[in-house]
Predict the structure.
Amino acid sequence: MELYAVNACDSGPGSGTVAAAAIDGINTVGRLAGKPFRLIHTRAINEGGLSQFVNDETTQNQSDERDCDDMKRLASGHDLALNELMERHSGKLFNYLLRCLQNEEDAADAAQEAFVRVYQNRVKFKSDQRFSTWLYAIATNLVKDRYRYRTRHPQVSLDAVNDTKGSNFRDCLPEQSASPGERLEAQERGDAVRRAVGALPEELRTPLILSEYEELSHAEIGEVLRCSAKAVETRIYRARQQLRNVLHKLLEGLY
């Protein structure tokens, strides 16, 4: 079986523009804190061809079916099926781990280990569950292990991804056409969000990331965290309340 390290983000077609990533990151300030505002609509940006991602239930079902088929193949001895699963899920998994761990090296190691555990537990996968939910549960357990390790060996980096395209909070800057003042303001907002999310307790940060960035339902997050959907809803509410308190001054400055 051959494993490979995953990259932080895609740079090819469909990855979106730097400007779109920056604006999405800035808008995260309000979205995470539960504030219904948006500075600039990303659809207005078309430089270089901004890809439009549309949630399509049929496409998702087809993806789930492919995942299930690949897990059946993997369980029956076709090890190459793991490569197909990694190709479809490694990017999002890496970004999720980077948001949680806020350290690129730790995220890459955890992503690698997650797929090792997928292989090791291939016969335990149940065909009536979504592979992505199962994978997030594996990854979340690895995150908890890593935080326990950090408690004994403190060393934390604050470089965290803030949008589904893979850019980090430190890189939340507009295109070069923006003025120095605008770039500085965007960086300050991005840094504030990064610090605020990173400072949340793990029990609040993880469900918020799974909901906001990975777009899992409360029921799916409950499966990942092994708690009820109601408990997930409560944790996300508490996370947003804490973010709202921390980012209050910043949010006031955006209106």
Notes: The chain has ten helices and no strands. The chain has a mean pLDDT of 74. Residues 44 and 210 are 27 Å apart (CA to CA). The longest helix spans residues 131-152.
